[in-house]
Structures are given as structure tokens and as C-alpha cells.
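Feature request disguised as a bug: please show the residue count (454) next to DNA-directed RNA polymerase I subunit rpa49 in the output. Example input:
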Amino acid sequence: MASPERERKRKRDANGNPRPVTTSSKSSVSQTAKINLKPSGSHPPILTSIHGVELPADLKFDAYFKTTSVKKRTAEGKRVQSEERDYRLHAQTARIEYDGVSEGQDGLSYYIGVYDPKMSSVDVYSAPLLHVRRHVRRLKEKEIPEKASTGTLLDSRQALSAAFGNRTSRKALLDEQINAITSNTLGSTASADVVSAISSAVDTATALLPTSESLRSGNGNSKYLPPIHADEEGATVDTVYRLDEMIDGKVLDACLSGVDEWEHAVRTHAEAGSTISPHYVASRIRGVIDSGVNVKTRLKVLRLVEHIIEFHRLFVTSFANTVYRPKVFDKLTADDKSITMYLLDTFTDAKNQNKNERQLSKTKLTKLYCWLLIFCLKVEEDGKMDIWDLVQDLQVDRKDVEMAAREIGARVAPLKEQFARLLGYSKDEMREHRIASLTLPLVFPKNKSLVKRR
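Example output, currently without the count:
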């Protein structure tokens, strides 16, 4: 009989009576299985360990083995020659190789058992344990067998870039995918002949591109020049480059304050000069006023030329042709801030994406020379000028100004000897003077890379 203490602690049913202790009518019968050690043969099952490696779903491994001769001692102490098999696994993709190798003896033997419930037996097979590692194929090819773990970081980075591509190559592949010609990009022409569809698309895209013949003959470089109207009907030297397309009228009118000072000085018989451009601008103020031909416009352009020369001097004398934007407004003595803004926007670029750091790059410098030559030729009454005065004010090599004159389609010729004598120039001085004339038709430099070979 159970003790009162046991009766108190025993779980009770819904009526409060103690639950009876039930005993299982079926006794657990332990079943034993017979273990049979089976020979693995030449192709045993293989166990693999893969740590931190995600395998592709369609990856297929190939198993193989390498035999090595080993000398062992028997229980009787005799030395016997035997062979050992080193099992391996190998698989590869386009960029990665997977190798499974055994990593030394850990004192354990591994087996795989196959249970047969009908016979109540387990067939046990010996199974080698291999560890799978992955390698970049390009990097593995560069390794030396004796020193496979050595190699500089640069070698590894180059091998990885060759296998998986760097940022530039990946961007190029992405561009090819975006610009690929497919049935979706062809649209309604997808059912038509693909060749004709591509041909029509190329013709449409290249309709406005210049031909090789026009590039050989030369028709101006759009990077440096304003719009050219030489081929228009009734074009003249004054309308080849239109002033209103090069500078806004309001910005040009901002030069009037300096022009009024020049005109007042000429009327009062005072000296009308320029400390910024003592050669070119100073020598032409009185001549433009005395000519009486389109005086106001020519004087405003002449005043703009003076500002461009000062602007050029400010940047060329600075480090790396770079000037801080607020510093330009402080140092440039322009008649109005709109003129300074026009010069900064037209002839400078932002350095390192910093809008306050303005740089006069090589391309912008060539553009400045070209536009300056056009403005100077608009000041001249006959479209001809001696570039020597401009070279002196810019303080540059004469060849730079000659190159700019040829870029705008002007002809550059040496000073004739009879004029040199009238002006009192010696032979050495005559070599420094060149006459730039803007006449129709314009003659542009030929593209040397497109010249036909004979």
C-alpha cells in the first residue's frame, strides 16, 4: 500500500480520486542488428566537409585517387611494401576551382553504414574524409608549386581583376548589355530583317556626323570655336562669327563705362591708354574713334579684349592655372560683375568638382586664344591685324597665337618686306611680325590623322 505521503503527491483525476498507476502490458524488446564490414573497392563512398563555402546547384565533382608506395611493418616485424590511395575531388566553374583533399591523419576512421531492416543488418564501408576548398583559377595558375602560399598583394589583386573584372571592365559589360540589340530594342522591326533594321538605325544616328572627307579638309573644331556661318548664303567676314552668339548683349553693354572714359579722354585731348594692354588696346583706341565706323560696338569689343587679357594673365601666373572664384572677383578690374561671370563660365572649368576652384585647362586656354583672335579681328576695320602687339600683351610664344589664328580659319602670312621698310622694321624685327587675315573661304587646319596615304 502506498504511503500517505505518496497518496498526497499523486496526481488526481477530475473527481479528486488518485489516479491508478498503470503498467505497460508490452515489454520493450531490444532489437540487435548484425554489422557486416564490407570492402570499399576502388571507388569507396567519400565524406566531405565544406566550411563557409556555398556550392553552385549544378556543380558536379569528379573523384580520382593517387597511389603512393609505402613501407609498413607487420605484426611479426617484417617490412612489407604496400600501396596507399590518396582520394581527391575536383570541380570547376568559369572562374573558380573546387578541390577536395585529405588534411592529414586525425586518429579517427570514418565509415558509412547501410541499414537493411529486413535482414536486420548494417553493411559498413570505409569512407575517406576530404575537405573541400575553393581557389580562383587565375590566381592558382600564377602560383608556384613549391611556394603556392607566397605572392605579393599586387599579384593577387591583378589575378582577381583578371578573373572577375575590375570596375572599368564591369562597366563596359554593363554598357554592352544596355546597348544590346534585341527584339525589345528593335520594337516593331523585330519581325523584319534584323540587318536592315540595324542599318536604318545606324543611318539615322549618323546622319548629322561629318564624313571623313570633311574631316580631312577641316571645318573647324567645335571645342574651341563658336558657331560658324561661312557656308550660309550672303556670308561676309563680319557674319562668319556672330557677336551675339559669342557674348550676350547685356554683358557687352556693361563695358560702356570704360568706353565712355576713352571717348572723353580723346575729346579732351588727354591720353587714352591701357595699363593692362599697352600694346594692342592702347594703340587702337584713337584709331577706332577716328574711323567713325561702328565706333560704339568696336570700342565695347576692344574693352572686352582688355578684360580677357587681364583674365588670362591672372590665371597663367597662378599655380596650376587655378584661382579661387572669390579671388577672381577681387583681383579682376572688370567694369561689371557680369563680365567676370561671363569669363569664368566661358573659359574655365571647375577643378575636382569644386565650383569655387576655377581652372584654365589646356582646352579652355586654346578656346580663349581663338575667341580673343575673333574679337580682335572684329575690332579691325578690314579683318586684318598684326599679331605682334597681342603676343606682347599676352606674354606668350608667337606660335600659340598663330595656332589660334589658324584654328579660327584665318590665314597667317609674314609681313611683306616693303611694308616692313615703311614701318622701319629691321630684318630681325620683321620675322616676329605676322599678319592674320580673316577672308572667305575660311581655311582650317587639316586633320593629320585622316590624311590619305599614297
